Amino acid sequence: MAFPRPKPTTVETLAKERTNAPFNVRKLSIAMHGSERALVLKEKFMAEIARHPAFKLADIHDLSKDELRERTMEKFASMVYFVTTESLETFQLRMQLIGIADPSFWTRFGVAYGLFLGALRSGATPNQLSYWIDKGVLGLNGVIGCFAMTELAHGSNVAGLETTATFDPSSDEFVIHTPHLGATKWWIGGAASTATHAAVFAQLIVGGKKWGVKTFVTQLRDTKTFTLMPGVTIGDIGKKMGRDGIDNGYIQFTYVRVPRAHMLMKHTQVSREGEVTEPPLAQLTYGALLGGRTSMVADSSNSAKKALTVAVRYAAVRRQFSSGKNQLETQILDYPIHQRRLMPLVAQSIAIGFTALKLQTMYEDMTQALDTLEPGDPNLNETLDKLKETHATSAGLKAFCTWAALDTIDKCRQSCGGHGYSAYSNFPLMYADFAVQCTWEGDNTILSLQAGRALIGAWGAAVKGKRLAPGVAYLGIPNILTAKSDSSLSLADIQKAWSCVAANVVKKATEEYLVHLKAGKTKDEAMERCSQSRFIAAKLHTVGYIFAMFSAAVEEMPNNPETDVLKTVCRLYGLWQIEELQGYFLKYGYFSPAQMDKVQDSVDTLCAEVRTVAIPLVDAFALSDHIVNSPLGRFDGSVYESYFAQVQASNPTPKEHPYFNRLIKPLLERENTTYEDAEGAMGLDDELTEMAEERKAAAEHKEGHVRRED
Amino acid sequence: MAFPRPKPTTVETLAKERTNAPFNVRKLSIAMHGSERALVLKEKFMAEIARHPAFKLADIHDLSKDELRERTMEKFASMVYFVTTESLETFQLRMQLIGIADPSFWTRFGVAYGLFLGALRSGATPNQLSYWIDKGVLGLNGVIGCFAMTELAHGSNVAGLETTATFDPSSDEFVIHTPHLGATKWWIGGAASTATHAAVFAQLIVGGKKWGVKTFVTQLRDTKTFTLMPGVTIGDIGKKMGRDGIDNGYIQFTYVRVPRAHMLMKHTQVSREGEVTEPPLAQLTYGALLGGRTSMVADSSNSAKKALTVAVRYAAVRRQFSSGKNQLETQILDYPIHQRRLMPLVAQSIAIGFTALKLQTMYEDMTQALDTLEPGDPNLNETLDKLKETHATSAGLKAFCTWAALDTIDKCRQSCGGHGYSAYSNFPLMYADFAVQCTWEGDNTILSLQAGRALIGAWGAAVKGKRLAPGVAYLGIPNILTAKSDSSLSLADIQKAWSCVAANVVKKATEEYLVHLKAGKTKDEAMERCSQSRFIAAKLHTVGYIFAMFSAAVEEMPNNPETDVLKTVCRLYGLWQIEELQGYFLKYGYFSPAQMDKVQDSVDTLCAEVRTVAIPLVDAFALSDHIVNSPLGRFDGSVYESYFAQVQASNPTPKEHPYFNRLIKPLLERENTTYEDAEGAMGLDDELTEMAEERKAAAEHKEGHVRRED
């Protein structure tokens, strides 16, 4: 464009924001990534995919579902090299990055490696694992796996799945069968057109008896011709809200036979003779599900940071309204209300990021303990405690972090005004892709209630003076229920506030539960009856936990300018969430109404403070323009030029109007028809004509009147 | 499908929910629609479009943007008959229904009739109006209009628009010009490929002086050939989050000449000699914008009701988890937490519906007053008061009602679990289409602040004992600031609670404003500084206002079973919102902590109570299966059969796999390659192989060990 640009340009405005940052952006970035190695690796991954044609992102908003799916498959080949050669830790960091660059591919890939391979890792015997590795599950040269758990009528309730796997001793096989429509396997990522095998969850039936849900590796398609195996019916389940690059499908089995050896038998075994041996500890089989949740906490932070990178940069360069005539308009980030819209969300994304680092460590410890566990192990109880804590903690975190991230994406979109609604802002896709995180791997509400149930248990333990897991140790602090603020609003004061209020709501949930128990309800019924209070307990506990993880991480850091800014951010997070949930802090008297006004003032002040470093702060999120994929969030600030260029590139003018002759011309050239009004009422045309005439008459009358007065 | 169905079927379950409703569904429906006539008309509109091929909805999830746009244009012709023959009132009801059936078409149609024609109605002189009617704006036979206000760099700040319209006295023309990229008209619905004329908002420049933003009807395309007029550059702005059926475009004007008579001159006139006459009351020119906001309150209620119809019916038929072995699983609507997720939202959608009916009346009164207003009118002050109240009230309502509806749609989606993520559930499109309502016609946050500014003004008036508009009369109730609950939680108690707390937060915002004023800030600066408190004031006032409208409507109704259920719903709405915003009620002491616990208990109880009539209640929303367009929300309850049928119909199996040979086969048949590990670390393949070997060794060792012990 040869247009002149108004001064200062958006590029100049953004550059100015980067001068005089009171901290070193790279050092801060390393702190937020957990290590320099993690940051350097991320930069390497970003550079690699930015140059790989399959990872082109600029055009994805205009691709059809079918085109997106084909592109997903193009990415597979490029990743096999890494999965087979990189250490698990490195590969996980790579996948974390892919998760925010391309959630569809991340999922399809995760189905093959996280879920299908994960099912083998946690459920196969050593011989079975070797067998499937030899078949090619790692290199995909022979087996491309998918994970067939969910059914049309059963999602959350895995134990209620209705697909059957009946042992036939005459042939030493299982017969996999879909008994009715509701038992159709549904949502199965990769089933529609790319998987050869599935890990099928089905009710084991041996000798006419049901033994619960087990996993059966079942071949879906011939690996040479890709035709469906006999008895396997597969359909495409089509368009979704987002992640259209995954080929989700449905599967119906009609008496499909699989060898007995294809049931994963690490935990439960079925012998040649049809004897069933059950595992001593059924809960150990669920450990593998927790990996997904853990990675979703990190993904929540990263996705929120991606959205915030766009919203904060755009708010810094967008100017709207000037305070005086002909003055330069104000950067919208300088409006207190806009700081209120974005700065707390920045703080939250950072808080969740630090929590994810801690949770990852907790998860790895637990996995290691589980992997090496044998029956009769002396560490069994300790390992079970670890599993229990990781289970409860990750349930609450998965729920509230994914909700927070989804909310952040939409608030960022709204903060960008109309342009946030353009596909090219990337918010619409971010939202649509992320939305499913609140549902899969456990519906958020249900997971919150699980976390709440564990908290009720923990309160019982606290009352009895039992040893408490670190995450709920605050329940045992003496007099925590009646603690009061010292008015300092320091990190310690904030921490105490969360401990006090979380303890109170956990206590309230427990009391309600006990009232229902005493009234004769079963445990399950009593739990249902107190579910609202249980939900509240989980919410306050989880937010307090995130604050605790963030504040612990900050306290461990050396005294330097980077730590200083993180301390400010941490206070903002803690106080803003207190403000959001102020009812509980007032109800339990930790803060007085006057102190709560001070909390509001402090949040105002902290928002203004964080705003001054907002651009270097989001720069430290270290997300490349390629990953962010939004002209509004360009690192160099050239938002309007980039946006205009992308809109033009994505929407070339067609040579011929696609429907002018068929639809518009007949409308424009239509003869005026006088329609009869079916209702006998005055039509809009009559009304408008009458209005025009009345006004003319009035104007003439007045004119006449004025003249007469002259 | 020949599958057997489990008993009771979903159809039987839903039918059972309709037996023994304690009220007459049709009578309740009439009450919620405002009149029997409104309901009957709606049913007629629904029947008409259900049979019209252009309004087919079952396939829209799989149409491309280009196909959606073409279909939008197909609908135009079918509507012209109605717009020219129906009364405005009937036509508005028709559009309200179209608004939830097909938001894209509603918008494109609204651009032509609501915005373009609206600009003419409010801005044209009588002669100008006649001229454009003769040209064909009503029947679209000659003029298809669009509304060119927003620019790339200016949305909210209309006064800051940068397109110029410079008067050239030599030719008696205006020269419309886009001075730089940021001034490009952007988002213009209909510009990309369907409009012939635009109402262009531009800075009027006469004699080198700027006179502010006025409207200029500018021809974009030749009506015979549809080629662009000289100097007009138009591009397509492409994919959006939703409403892809609208052809939004950008427009750049390069010294485009329009006759002087094409400036709309009802308010400001430019004479042949270049004399500019300005209107005595500039604020009167903004009245027309309020129509959009008013209709958005009704649309918020209707959109929320559509989403809730799906979520509530699905929750009634979906069963998950049984309380005992082999027992029938529980309907998820019977879980207290699921009632908590949906019943308050049902109450809110009804509350907003009644508010919309009241607001519509207020808006019509005001429009009538404005239409007949002449300078020097004795009713001028009263009319200005009405305009002011409608402006402030509609600003707050637009913001909080659209937010509430968007939130409802997403919560409904989440409440349906995984299936809510399927495009065919219709939630994804509902969300994507609705999302823009929070942004256009005034960003919600900015509108909230406008409402808050008006409240600060009203508090000032209350303190001075001045007459208050009905909507803020509560600010003048003696001792309202220190009112206390009588513990009854009756409608009157709830009303007093809202008045008390809203008055307190309005007072707080005012006090903050005054502190900043006294500290020497300008009025605008002081307003910015107190924006968080202003926002809170607007929020509490608006929710209280919605409650007041709902409760007033219910109090006016005759004593009968329909009114009884609405009273229950009204209490649920009021108490649930108190619980949501409990901090303020505790802070200002209207409720004690113990009373607040009682509020929570009451909300639990009311949720359970409304649940018993949930199905007949959503039936009374009177939305046809065609409009709802979601198999999960089928009236007859055949959710899984309908869902499966739609998935199959929308996704036929392709004859040939689209990319098996190109992408999958090479992957499957690849030779095993041993990659060198670049990092020298252990790759995942090594790790897994090692793990398998270790386990084997451990198992053998143990076996040996056990044998030795034998």
Automatic annotation (TrEMBL), chains A, B:
All copies of domain Acyl-coenzyme A oxidase N-terminal, residue ranges: 24-134
Keyword DNA repair among UniProt keywords: no
Record's GO cellular component terms: peroxisome
Domain Acyl-CoA oxidase C-alpha1: start-end pairs: 286-456
Cofactors that this protein relies on: FAD
Keyword Cell inner membrane: no
Chain ranges of the Acyl-CoA oxidase C-terminal domain: 491-668
Any one biological process term the GO annotation gives: lipid homeostasis
Pfam families xrefs: ACOX, ACOX_C_alpha1, Acyl-CoA_dh_M, Acyl-CoA_ox_N
List of catalytic residues: E441
Pathway: Lipid metabolism; peroxisomal fatty acid beta-oxidation
Catalytic activity: a 2,3-saturated acyl-CoA + O2 = a (2E)-enoyl-CoA + H2O2
Name listed for the protein in its UniProt record: Acyl-coenzyme A oxidase
Domain of life: Eukaryota
Family: Belongs to the acyl-CoA oxidase family.
Record note on quaternary structure: Heteropentamer composed of five different subunits.
Domain called Acyl-CoA oxidase/dehydrogenase middle: residue spans: 146-254
Keywords: FAD, Fatty acid metabolism, Flavoprotein, Lipid metabolism, Oxidoreductase, Peroxisome
